[in-house]
């Protein structure tokens, strides 16, 4: 697999190191043939689902413990609890190995450990040398059986997060993405940004309660690769009784569409004194397990997701020199999806770029796409699909994501076949459904002077509104 990837990179990298020219269009790539690695899955005596992929090339074990309780389970509690717990917990260690002793001991044995409280679940990432397994696993086990949460570290983490909030608007792209998410996901935990005032009211008891919820959640998975021995993990997990379901937020396309309808009456201008403005069109897509998924992926590649092969880069950047970068990307989750078209441009070019961005997703262009463009896009997507399996950890993560999103059995194996089935008629159909600028939120980060380009159609926002 690694040799295939190396050859592919050596062949493709020079092409993308320079701007697209007519010669690139004439290069023909055949679809890459490869086998999806075979993953072993089972459920152990403690009710933990185990996904494994053996690779004894190096005497190292990599493991991810997934506990399905995350920020979406916070309910009406401050969303800042997730980040505050994440950093404080990792640094606090266990009662047997408190504070820095926990991570320092693991580092002494060549092991690493981290905690991430994500939206859907909490992830514990572990790596250790096989020869130290009998010593390292009990240390890590103490983190779950007798967790510590140090008041001093909570205070330090609170200060670090407050400073992060102070500096989060420094980067134009990060600011734009935050304001887009706040608009698209307004009224949800996912769309709520951290506030310093909320950090101040969170008490240690709030963190302990959420920590306890995480550790008592019965849905758990272990993803393990490398030179592992599953027998060493037989007594690691406690047997948990199925607990009552905790309140969980559910985001749907209809909820997001309602938010778009509230915000797409204006151009949302987030005022920031910069010379390069960020422009975005953000829309709603269906859930991952939807029949239109494959056609959307192909159309997105052609319009903006294909780098120098896309219309956005070719027409906005290369042919007209209007943007430093331009493109698009999709994100699919279990219950919804989103698409974002973007460009970074000189402030004086903002109006021209936005007009062109809208023009390039209109039915007129989508209906004019050719069979040659379709074939080229499908081949490129099929060839890049191999990177889903560039390492064993990512292979396991792809399979777990398939199950989390309720994708059909054999999704990974059949992905290339489903992409091949996409037709020009499919592109025209999904284009009309999902790629219409009047069904999107327009967000610009730039100076207040941009308001003059769209008099009467601009909603002014401050970065911290």
From TrEMBL:
Entry keyword Signal: yes
Q: Which UniProt keywords apply?
A: Signal
Question: Where would I find the Peptidase M16 C-terminal domain in this sequence?
Answer: 202-380
One Pfam family assigned to this protein is Peptidase_M16_C
Q: Point out the coiled-coil segments of this chain.
A: none
InterPro entries, alphabetically? Metalloenz_LuxS/M16, MPP/UQCRC_Complex, Pept_M16_N, Peptidase_M16_C
Q: Does the keyword Ion transport apply?
A: no
Name of this chain's protein? Putative metallopeptidase putative signal peptide
Give the organism, scientific name: Leptospira biflexa serovar Patoc (strain Patoc 1 / ATCC 23582 / Paris)
């Amino acid at each position: 697999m690694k040799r295939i990837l190396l050859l592919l990179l050596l062949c493709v990298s020079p092409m993308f190191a320079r701007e697209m020219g007519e010669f690139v269009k004439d290069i023909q790539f055949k679809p890459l043939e490869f086998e999806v690695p075979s993953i072993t899955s089972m459920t152990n005596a403690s009710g933990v689902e185990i996904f494994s992929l053996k690779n004894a090339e190096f005497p190292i074990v990599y493991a991810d413990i997934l506990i399905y309780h995350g920020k979406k389970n916070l309910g009406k509690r401050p969303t800042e609890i997730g980040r505050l717990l994440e950093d404080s917990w990792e640094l606090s260690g266990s009662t047997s190995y408190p504070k820095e002793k926990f991570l320092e001991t693991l580092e002494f044995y060549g092991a690493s450990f981290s905690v991430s409280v994500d939206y859907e679940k909490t992830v514990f990432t572990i790596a250790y040398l096989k020869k130290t397994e009998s010593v390292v696993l009990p240390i890590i086990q103490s983190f779950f059986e007798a967790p510590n949460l140090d008041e001093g570290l909570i205070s330090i983490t609170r200060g670090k997060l407050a400073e992060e909030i102070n500096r989060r608007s420094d980067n134009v792209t990060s600011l734009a993405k935050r304001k887009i998410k706040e608009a698209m996901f307004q009224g949800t935990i996912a769309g709520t940004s951290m506030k310093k005032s909320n950090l101040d009211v969170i008490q240690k008891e709030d963190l302990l309660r959420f920590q306890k919820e995480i550790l008592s959640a019965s849905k758990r998975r272990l993803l393990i690769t490398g030179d592992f021995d599953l027998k060493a993990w037989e007594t690691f997990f406690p047997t948990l009784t199925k607990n009552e379901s905790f309140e969980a937020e559910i985001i749907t396309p209809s909820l997001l569409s309602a938010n778009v309808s509230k915000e797409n009456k204006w151009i949302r201008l987030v005022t920031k004194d910069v010379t390069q403005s960020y422009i975005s069109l953000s829309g709603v897509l269906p859930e991952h397990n939807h029949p239109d998924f494959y056609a959307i992926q192909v159309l997105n590649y052609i319009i903006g997701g294909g780098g120098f092969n896309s219309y956005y880069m070719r027409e906005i950047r290369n042919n007209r020199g209007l943007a430093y970068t331009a493109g698009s990307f999709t994100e699919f989750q279990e219950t919804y999806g989103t698409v974002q078209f973007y460009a970074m441009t000189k402030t004086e070019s903002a109006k021209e770029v936005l007009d062109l961005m809208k023009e390039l997703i209109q039915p007129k262009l989508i209906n004019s796409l050719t069979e040659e463009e379709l074939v080229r896009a499908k081949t490129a997507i099929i060839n890049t699909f191999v990177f889903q399996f560039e390492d064993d950890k990512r292979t396991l993560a792809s399979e777990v994501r398939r199950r989390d999103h309720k994708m059909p059995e054999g999704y990974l194996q059949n992905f290339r076949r489903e992409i091949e089935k996409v037709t020009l008629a499919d592109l025209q159909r999904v284009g009309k459904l999902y790629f219409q600028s009047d069904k999107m939120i327009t967000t610009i980060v730039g100076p207040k002077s941009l308001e003059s380009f769209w008099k009467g159609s601009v909603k002014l926002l401050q970065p911290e509104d």
